[in-house]
Write a structure and sequence with these properties.
The protein is α+β, with helices and mostly antiparallel strands. The protein has nine helices and 22 strands. Helices cover about 25% and strands about 25% of the residues. The strands form six sheets. Strands 6-5-10-2-12-13 form a six-stranded antiparallel β-sheet, with no helix packed on it. Strands 1, 3, 8, 9 and 15 form a five-stranded antiparallel β-sheet that branches. It has a five-stranded parallel β-sheet with strand order 17-16-18-19-20, with helices on both faces. It is globular. The chain starts with a helix and ends in an 8-residue tail after the last helix.
Length: about 400
C-alpha cells in the first residue's frame, strides 16, 4: 500500500474518533489502609461477592470512567465484572443507561498490589449531580479491603455469585466505600475540579446519612446551579486524618500526591485540616481498652509544625499550577480532646492562614460557625451534638460562605 495513502487512511480514522473535551474528577473517596481488627471497625474482605454502591457525582459530562483502587492491598485484586448505570430521582435505574465497564477492552481486570486502575471511557450523558449505581464483582478472595471507611451511604453486599445488573437480597449492608477511588467525567471545554483535603468535618460526619449533605456536597450543588465554567468537587476528607502524622489514614502531607495531585482536572484545592493534630497532640490521652497495653504517647507537635505542614502542601500544589485555598480550623471547645493549649495553637494557626498571604485565598470557616458569645465553641445549632462535627445546617452554612468567584 502507498505510504501516503496509508497515512491518509490513518488520519481519517483518527478524525472519526469523537474528540474529548476535558477529563475532570467528579466524585472521590480517599482510600485508607485496612484495620485487621477485631471490633466494629475491622476491615472486611469478600470472596465471590458482588458489591453495589450508589454515588452522587458533582459535575456532569458526556462520558465517564471509573478509577478503582488496590492502594493498600496485600496482593493483586481480581475484578470479575463491573457495571455502571444512571439512576432517576427515585433511585431506579434509567432504562438504556447501563454499561459494562471494560479495562483495555476486557470485561474484567486484575489490579496490581498498590495500584489504581482506570476503566475505559463509557459514552453516557450525565447531568450535574447525577446519581449512578456501580456493581463490582469479586470472584476470588479480595483480602482486607482498600476502603473509604465513612461512606455515609448504604452499600449492598450480595450472596455468593455474580449479580452485576441483577436484583439480589443483600447478605450484608455496609457504610464504607470498597475499592473505588473516583469517577471522572468528560466535561465541557475549560471544566475543572476543586479538591478538598480534609478530615471528618469534610467527610460529613454528623450530616444525614444517604442525603449528600456534607459541606462539599452543598458546594457542588451551588457550583452546578450557576452558569459558566463547569466545576467538579472531589471530596478527599478522611475521618480522623491529620496534617502531619498517620493515624486514620496516611497524613495529609503523605497522601497529597495520590489523593489530590494525581487526579485529572484539579485546578484548585481547599485545605481544611488540623483539628485532629491539635486534639491528639495537645488534648488528654485516651486510655487504652481494658486488657490492652498502654497507648504510645502521641508525637509532640507545635503550631509552627502544622504551619510548616501547610507550607509543604502549598509548595507542592503551586508546583502543579493548582490554586490552594486555606480554611481556618473550626472551633471545637466541648469536644473530648479540646484543651487550652490546643486552643492557643488553633488561634496561632488561624492567624497564619488569615494573614500570611501564602494561600491563594482564605475561607474563614471559623468565623462562619463559631458561637458569637463563646468563639472557642461552635454554634449550638450548627453542630451535631459533639461540639466538633457539623450538622446539615452547619455544613450548609459552611458551603454558603465560599465565594464562587474563586472558581471561574
Amino acid at each position: 500500500m502507498n505510504r501516503l495513502f496509508a497515512a491518509a487512511i490513518g488520519l481519517s480514522l483518527l478524525s472519526a474518533v469523537p474528540a474529548r473535551a476535558d477529563w475532570i474528577t467528579s466524585w472521590t473517596a480517599a482510600p485508607l489502609p485496612p484495620n485487621p481488627g477485631p471490633g466494629a471497625f475491622a476491615t472486611p474482605s469478600w470472596t465471590n461477592r458482588t458489591i453495589r454502591q450508589t454515588l452522587r457525582l458533582s459535575a456532569g459530562g458526556t462520558a465517564l470512567r471509573v478509577r478503582l483502587t488496590n492502594a493498600f492491598g496485600a496482593a493483586p485484586l481480581k475484578v470479575g465484572a463491573a457495571r455502571i448505570a444512571l439512576l432517576d430521582d427515585s433511585g431506579k435505574e434509567i432504562p438504556g443507561s447501563a454499561h459494562i465497564l471494560r479495562f483495555g477492552g476486557a470485561g474484567g481486570v486484575t489490579i496490581p498490589r498498590g495500584a489504581p486502575m482506570v476503566s475505559d471511557a463509557v459514552n453516557l450523558k450525565l447531568p450535574a449531580l447525577a446519581r449512578v449505581s456501580l456493581d463490582l464483582y469479586f470472584p476470588e478472595a479480595t483480602g482486607l479491603c482498600t476502603c473509604h471507611q465513612a461512606g455515609l451511604d448504604t452499600v449492598l453486599v450480595s450472596p455468593e455469585g455474580d449479580f452485576t445488573g441483577k436484583e439480589f437480597a443483600p447478605e450484608a449492608k455496609i457504610q464504607s466505600r470498597p475499592f473505588i477511588a473516583g469517577v471522572e467525567v468528560d466535561a465541557a471545554k475549560g471544566a475543572a475540579t476543586v479538591a478538598v483535603l480534609g478530615d471528618s468535618i469534610s467527610d460529613g460526619i454528623g450530616s444525614t446519612s444517604g442525603a449528600n449533605r456534607r459541606w462539599p456536597d452543598f458546594l457542588a450543588a451551588r457550583l452546578a446551579a450557576r452558569k459558566g465554567t463547569v466545576w467538579g468537587v472531589a471530596n478527599q476528607g478522611i475521618s480522623g486524618n491529620r496534617v502531619l502524622n498517620d493515624g486514620a489514614g496516611e497524613a495529609a502531607v503523605t497522601r497529597l500526591d495520590r489523593d489530590i495531585l494525581a487526579m485529572p482536572g484539579v485546578k484548585a484545592m481547599i485545605v481544611f485540616e488540623g483539628v485532629n493534630d491539635l486534639g491528639v497532640g495537645f488534648g488528654p490521652q485516651r486510655p487504652a481498652p481494658a486488657g490492652a497495653s498502654a497507648r504510645p504517647a502521641p508525637p509532640s507537635i507545635t503550631a509552627k509544625d502544622v504551619i510548616n505542614g501547610y507550607r509543604q502542601i502549598i509548595t507542592r500544589a503551586h508546583a502543579r499550577a493548582i490554586k490552594i485555598y486555606g480554611a481556618t480550623i473550626a472551633p471545637y471547645k466541648g469536644a473530648g480532646y479540646w484543651s487550652d493549649r490546643g486552643e492557643a495553637a488553633r488561634q496561632e494557626i488561624n492567624r497564619f492562614i488569615r494573614t500570611s498571604k501564602e494561600f491563594d485565598a482564605v475561607l474563614d470557616f471559623d468565623a462562619v460557625i463559631r458561637d458569637p458569645h463563646d468563639p472557642e465553641s461552635m454554634r449550638a445549632d450548627y453542630h451535631s451534638g459533639d461540639h466538633l462535627h457539623g450538622n446539615d445546617a452547619g455544613y450548609k452554612a459552611t458551603a454558603a460562605s465560599i465565594d464562587l468567584k474563586l472558581f471561574r
